[in-house]
Amino acid sequence: MRLHGCARRVAGSIVSVLALGLMASGATSDSSKTADARDKLNFWEGRWKEQVETKETPYSHAASVPSHITCSWTADRRYMVCEYLSEKIDPAEGKPSDHLHL
Question: Is the same domain home to 85 and 47?
């Protein structure tokens, strides 16, 4: 009788382990279908030109500065880095502006 109870516990343990294994494999297959939220930022990656227009205000003067923008992912794909480089002197800074943004 004692052997029968032990065999029942072993069989119950095996069934439990198999059930957990099936649940774990089901969870991993669902998570692989989930898209990475960072993929939404891919449309920023690239190079383009921009014309920065500053309006006349009590704090700034009107100006138009052509700029180049380059955006790309860092090597570990944790950050999107954008560089804004003006083609001529930015009146607000007195020099060509060169800025990085994350």
Answer: yes
